[in-house]
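Pilot study result, target chain (150 residues):
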Amino acid sequence: MHADAIHRGGGQIIPTARRVCYAAQLLAKPGLQEPMFLVEIACPESAQGGIYSVMNVRRGQVFSSEQRPGTPMYTMKAYLPVAESFGFNADLRAATGGQAFPQAVFDHWSILNGDPTEKGSKIQELAMKIRTRKGLKPDVPAYDQYYDKL
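Predicted structure:
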């Protein structure tokens, strides 16, 4: 930094603040989040096994299964990662013989398990793919890269 205040401007302060923010983000145990659908599935009791099998293959979590009063139909509610939802309707119909009718709507963001800075982990591979797609260097930089060099 320049000794005279008149010469201290954004050109000196902003790059320093940027390096501080980058290093702080890397030291704060960064993580990735994925969008989750809330899926409501209407089905007869005989189709529930097929629904559970499809949801398990696609990292889905069934949290409610209630019978509709006066009918043989059940309403099942589950969370399904958006990334796993492509082709979900076709797989569900195939597993249940066309007896299940899903409806999906965005519900929340879920934190992925793991550390993207840990070498060899699945989440690190995902982070590398995202960084490559965005035109960044594939490896997450180490926080010491942002130390001031005097």
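One observation from the pilot: The first helix runs from residue 10 to 27. A full batch analysis is planned for the follow-on phase.
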